[in-house]
Amino acid sequence: QVQLVESGGGLVQPGGSLRLSCAASGRTFSRSAMGWFRQAPGKEREFVAAMSWAGGEIYYGESVKGRFTISRDNAKNTAYLEMNSLKSEDTAVYYCTTGTLTTQHTKDYVYWGQGTQVTVSS
Fold this sequence. Notes:
Elements: E1 2-7, E2 10-12, E3 18-26, E4 33-39, E5 46-51, E6 58-60, E7 68-73, E8 78-83, E9 92-99, E10 111-112, E11 116-120
Parallel strand pairs: 2-11
Antiparallel strand pairs: 1-3, 3-8, 4-5, 4-9, 5-6, 7-8, 9-10, 9-11
């Protein structure tokens, strides 16, 4: 069993930045792939970014490429999502997740956090 807790969400103006954190506990974190997804009201959950356990594989969703950066600190059992140049369309609940595969598909991830709200508005 793995428990994931996201933090760092909030209200930010367009063009601003936020850094989300995902603290993991339970089973070994360092051998698991980490992913970030988001879900806006009335929309399906959307892939944002994913990173393999050693960092050799990193993927980003098309809408966030060049603006968001995923990272992880296995010693701290924590993953991060640095979000820059935020746009109103980035407004959503952001979820971190972990699993054995580094993919863009929700079905490949096993454990999910409760989510943190990010609102981009002036």
